[in-house]
Design goal:
With about 120 residues, the chain is mainly β. The protein contains no helices and ten strands.
């Protein structure tokens, strides 16, 4: 069974930083292209970043480019999202997903990120 467990969210002031983690199990993580997605209150799922298997190719939503960095540790079956210079509009529930499932209902419980002064 595929399991994705996100953590690392919290309440942070504008301009602050957070590092999200996602521990994966139930599939061969190192073979999977992975994504982070988010859902703001009252809105749909929004893809924000992807990392290909191997970790050398990444892509980002324009609004987070230069502020967010996706990475992976295949030895730990863990996906990361370093978020810097956070803005109020980044407030959302953040999920990780296999890239092929990025538009599907998230499997994990997500981790809440709230950016507010």
């Amino acid at each position: 069974e595929v399991q994705l467990v996100e953590s690392g969210g919290g309440l942070v002031q504008p301009g602050g930083s957070l590092r999200l983690s996602c521990v994966a199990s139930g599939f061969t993580f190192s073979d999977a292209d992975m994504s982070w997605v988010r859902q703001a209150p009252g809105k749909g799922i929004e893809w924000i970043s992807e990392i290909w298997r191997g970790g050398e190719i990444t892509s980002y939503l324009d609004s987070v480019k230069g502020r967010f960095t996706i990475s992976r540790d295949d030895a730990k079956n863990t996906l990361y999202l370093q978020m810097n210079n956070l803005k109020p509009e980044d407030t959302a529930l953040y999920y990780c997903a296999r890239h092929s499932e990025r538009n599907d209902r998230p499997r994990g419980q997500g981790t809440q990120v709230t950016v507010s002064s």
